[in-house]
Amino acid sequence: MSQIAPAPALSVPAATTRARARRSGMRGKWPVIILFLPPALLLFTLFVILPMGEAAWYSFFNWNGYGLPDQWVGWKNYELIFRQSAFRNALVNNGLIIVASICIQIPLALWLATMVTKHIKGALVFRLIFFLPYVLADVAAGMIWRFVYDGEFGLVANIAEFFGQEPPFWLADKNVAFYAVLGVIVWKYFGFHMMLFIAGLQAIDKSVLEAADIDGATGWQKFMKVTLPLLGSTVRLSVFFAVVGSLQLFDMIMPLTGGGPSNSTQTLVTFLYSFGVMRMQVGFGSAVGVVLFVICVTLAFSYKRIFMRND
Amino acid sequence: MTDTAPPIDAASAPTSGHSLGIRTRTYLYAALLIVAAVVLVPLVTTALGGFKTLGDLRGNAFGLPQTWMFSNYTDILVSQRYWLQMGNSLLIAGLTVFLVLTLAAMAAFVFAHVKFFGSQHLLNYFLIGLMFPAATAILPLFIRIRDLGLLDTYWGVVLPQAAFGLGMSILLFRNYFRGMPLELFDAAFVDGAGYFRFFWHITLPLSRPIIATVGIISFVGSWNSYILPLILLNSESKYPWPLGIMVYRGEFSTDWQLILAFITLTITPTIIVFFVAQKHIIAGLTAGAVK
């Protein structure tokens, strides 16, 4: 999974006519267009746009990837997807990850951000420590937590033994595994959201807070009435990244659980991998990809239209 | 959207604040230390675990090793596979960064400075790439790479990886180029410079900050990437390190002390670079988010 989630900045404001008029003055614009644009255009079309279009086409076939796709099955692959309980698990899990991000991760990140922007010693060190998990690869983080949760050698086992309890195997328990995975997600990503909030907090005009001070506002009142409303766009951005991150979550799940036990920790991408790629079901896997694409695009557009139109 | 605003400086010293009371301060530090412990304990015990014997690990996952098994680490460090995987990751990331920087800067330059019919639509075309993850089209991508004869080659991973990085990179470059003062352009125009000289002699030398940002984003993304190499590479000799960890874990499934040593060694470069260049890395990785 590429860690860098796409920015919500999907529309680009038109250039001012003044700049355009002046800029068009330079001679010989066609050579630069013909030399500078096609390489990027070719690469992007070949490896991003065409595969997406092909996914839509292949999704109507039953095909193992060899020879030509010739077994047209219509919408059957899509029917199969929605009949799979593993897919419903994946869909619910992706939703729960978003809910957990909004209810746990973002408040935590905001709370920490307000603390490490205070004038205290060591604030910078804390920021670095909190951001550290974000720069680690998801695979490494997943593997580290596989050790933490290990029922025989891991930290959890050691803690359980210390209290004289039977060591639990959380990642092997289908009722618990998903919550264990959620914990790792929060551990890995809260620092990134904290950095967003730090940037947001630093952009707030100090004089507004000083005015509130003069009016005798308490710290909590200042936070609820002044800081939080001014952080609106940062909160919306943070939620956006939680959604995007959830929809592409894969790398971290693989070392932790691989989607198991009993498909209890599948996400949309691990589902695509286990049921499409591993079994070389190109048609079925492509259909999953199309469903994921539709979900991503719908969410991106509606979220931007509804919540971020003023940002 | 333009880059004329000061860069996000999330890593610099805190500026706000009044002096806090002793009690508030105590609670504050207690909370921060607890969170820091939750972050650091898994990392530190992983590194320490790599020095233990398996028996030591079973009852003593938190403490210092009873005997320091340096050989767990040195055995990996003298093995070929560790260096090979690091080298593979470096090569793939290096090529990806080079390709993304070159192609994105060129395309963004056109979008920023050259007016032509349909340029806005073409830019939006690239921005489609921001809306879905690479995983959505992974199977057709696999087939395409296979049919091009690039399966199990470095380029087979680099090309799609770079392609998926183009949307964001073009957007960042284009906004930065647009933020440059128009006077530069006028001066170059009066001097009779063409687009190419303007690009090479004026735009690029002034674009170091954005080159660094895009470079960092692409490098980190590639260095940590897993799903594309997983699907597009077959031979272990070409595996980058995230795939290597998974293979290593499969081989030494219950020898956790060796796996922990291996994980520690593979993430050490990242941690060192992070602490050395933290300001640039934090600014770079959050820049993509905020702009």
Description:
The complex is a heterodimer of chains A (311) and B (291). Chain A is built from 14 helices and no strands. Chain A is globular. In chain A, 47% of the residues are buried. The N terminus of chain A is likely disordered. Chain B has 291 residues and is mainly alpha-helical. Chain B has a domain of 180 residues: MetI-like fold (Orthogonal Bundle). Helix content of chain B is 71%, strand content 0%. Chain B is built from 14 helices and no strands. In chain B, α1 packs across α13. Chain B starts with 21 loop residues before the first helix and ends with a helix. The N terminus of chain B is likely disordered. Chains A and B meet through α1, α2, α4, α5 and α6 of A and α1, α2, α4, α5 and α6 of B.
Give descriptors for this structure.
heterodimer; A: 311 residues; mainly alpha; MetI-like fold; 14 helices; B: 291 residues; 71% helix; globular; disordered N terminus
Short description:
The complex is a heterodimer of chains A (311) and B (291). Chain A is mostly helical. Chain A is built from 14 helices and no strands.
Would you spell out the secondary-structure blueprint of this structure?
The complex is a heterodimer of chains A (311) and B (291).
Chain A: H1 17-23, H2 29-58, H3 76-83, H4 85-116, H5 123-135, H6 138-149, H7 155-162, H8 177-202, H9 206-214, H10 219-230, H11 232-247, H12 253-256, H13 268-277, H14 282-307
Helix pairs in contact in A: 2-14, 3-14, 4-8, 4-11, 4-13, 5-8, 8-11, 11-14, 13-14
Chain B: H1 22-49, H2 54-59, H3 70-78, H4 80-113, H5 119-127, H6 138-147, H7 154-179, H8 182-190, H9 195-203, H10 208-223, H11 227-232, H12 241-251, H13 256-276, H14 278-290
